[in-house]
Amino acid sequence: MGDLFHRFDRFAYYLFSILVFLVMWEVGAALFGRNLLPGIAPVAVEMVAIIETGEFFVHLADTLQRVAVGFSIAYGVSIPLGIAMGLDRRVEYLFDIPVLIGISVPGLAVAILAIIWFGLSELTAYVSVFLLATPMIVFNFWQGTKSIDADLLQMGRVFEMSKINRARHIILPSLLPHLLAAARFGLALSWKIIVIVELLGLTSGIGYQINNAFQLYSITGVIAWTLNFTIVMMLIEFGILKTIERRATAWRGDSDVQGGGKRE
Fold it and tell me: Which of 99, 155, 247, 249 is 20 to 30 A off residue 197, Cα-Cα?
């Protein structure tokens, strides 16, 4: 019985945290007024209505497509750059300051500049995600590469392994937790960036619909579109990304891995 509880205790905590959130929501609605913070029931009705019209899936597809393209480019560039920064001091010195500047730049400023540069186009969304997500993902790979056991790398040199074999058999397996953590973190950041860009200057997507609800002063609509989108993100997080993470790190003996370390 104890083992069974230990195996599924996370779900008990998940359920408890959701219940606490819902209770706090209702309490907040009662305290601040339901015209400012609608209760759970009207928001739930609006969420269902949005889905039933089919409009949600049309705009969700546009948002997902923008995130997929922008994130794929950012991730593809970040892997070799982060590894190079972790292995070579010259590359590290060259990109250290640009990466830290990229992390510090406000996302809203980049989104506005991208709209000015590229207009109301898909390219605006791709460039915004690339410019804002790349520094954060590079930083993750950079620090992950620097944490690789130096003895393993030295052993590879002693056995005269080629650079490709060292990357394949030593570096990439050691970076696997960081690869997965960077994917999850980068995607979470990309969702937020895309919604801001859509809200500011595009004519479709979840951010565009949130802005429409705001223009109509429909707080219920703003929350309903936001929650529907959040639920989809949670399904991707728990249904796809965490499943991949558990399978890829099963060899560690503890599938619940976060950013390279075991969690007790």
Answer: 99
Amino acid sitting at position 95? F
Assign 185 a pLDDT band (cuts: 50, 70, 90).
Answer: confident
Cβ-Cβ contacts under 8 Å for 213 (sequence gap 6 or more): 219, 220, 221, 222, 224, 225
Which ranges of 105-218 does DSSP label H, i.e. alpha helix?
107-118, 122-146, 150-158, 163-166, 172-201, 206-215
Distance between CA atoms of residues 34 and 16, nearest Å: 25
Which helix (DSSP H) or strand (DSSP E) does residue 258 occupy? strand 257-258
What is the C-alpha separation between 233 and 242, in angstroms, rounded? Answer: 12
pLDDT digits (tens, 9 = 90+) for 110-164: 888 988 888 878 898 899 999 989 998 899 888 888 888 777 777 877 777 777 7
Which residues on neighbouring strands pair with residue 262, listed in sequence order? 257
Query: Per the structure block, which two tokens stand in for 42?
Result: 């009207």
Q: Please, which pLDDT band fits residue 253 given cuts at 50, 70 and 90?
A: low
Residue 261 three-state SS: strand
Helix axes 40-53, 55-87, angle to 10 degrees: 100
Residue 257's DSSP bridge partners are 262
Q: pLDDT digit string (tens) for 93-111?
A: 999 999 999 888 888 888 8
Predicted structure pTM score: 0.77
Dist. CA 136–CA 99, nearest whole Å: 8
Which value, to the nearest 10 degrees, does the dihedral of the CA atoms of residues 116, 117, 120, 121 take?
-160
Query: Contact 156/170 with Cβ under 8 angstroms?
Result: yes
Helix/strand number for the chain, H first, E second = 12, 2
Q: Contact, 86 vs 143, CB < 8 A?
A: yes
DSSP type of residue 106: -
